[in-house]
């Protein structure tokens, strides 16, 4: 599903964020990415959703060698990858419904299908009754649910979640995890960077720890492994 071979990433200012990453993440896995701030977690995620490009090495997602992809093909790869952020990144002037529908419009989905599928994912995240609310009218947890609905609306093979519970209180965070587990159960691979020790140590899954740009630990049903 996701394969990295000797991936290196050096930013324009000379900062080396990843050095020699080798990893295989299979279809339907749920993987936590842990490690100190500045370790390279976000960079690792950005390479998967093609926000950044590797300086060296091979990366493939769902069979596409995305290091080499032509620019015009990017939207079609992104369609296979849903992204969730700590700060939700919803479009503030669009309603919950429109934020989700927009992700289908950009890949030219027929209008009838957009309506049906948008309502379906709103229902899945428990927010059908908030379809017409603007992001500012929703709680943090509800905004994250809209973001999750937007991430899954095109049926991606992979969800990349960068600190999805980072701005949420514990109870709301468990609700979000419940939803991500349900999405994973339905067949979507999930890669989630997190600092949430309690979640990692309770909902046991594969744990990949990154420190100073390298993978230092990779455990099935692993633990968080840091103090906080
Ligand atoms: P993490 O997500 O684990 O906190 P990042 O991947 O964000 O780590 O950062 C890894 C390293 O790369 C850090 O030293 C960070 O300062 C640096 N970095 C991240 N993004 C950029 C950028 N756009 N330009 C230069 N350096 C960056
Ligand atoms: P909260 O902590 O925000 O109350 P809950 O987990 O109790 O979150 O769920 C709130 C709404 O989200 C419910 O209406 C429910 O339909 C929906 N929901 C929660 N978990 C799932 C799930 N795993 N699959 C589908 N819908 C879910």
TrEMBL record:
Part of the ABC transporter FtsEX involved in cellular division. It is found in: Cell membrane. This is Cell division ATP-binding protein FtsE. The keyword Cell cycle applies. Keywords: ATP-binding, Cell cycle, Cell division, Cell membrane, Membrane, Nucleotide-binding. Belongs to the ABC transporter superfamily. It is a peripheral membrane protein. Its main location: membrane. It comes from the Bacteria. The keyword Kinase does not apply. One of its GO terms (molecular function) is ATP binding. Residues 2-228 form the ABC transporter domain. It comes from Cohnella soli. Homodimer. Forms a membrane-associated complex with FtsX. GO terms for biological process: cell division. SUPFAM superfamilies: P-loop containing nucleoside triphosphate hydrolases.
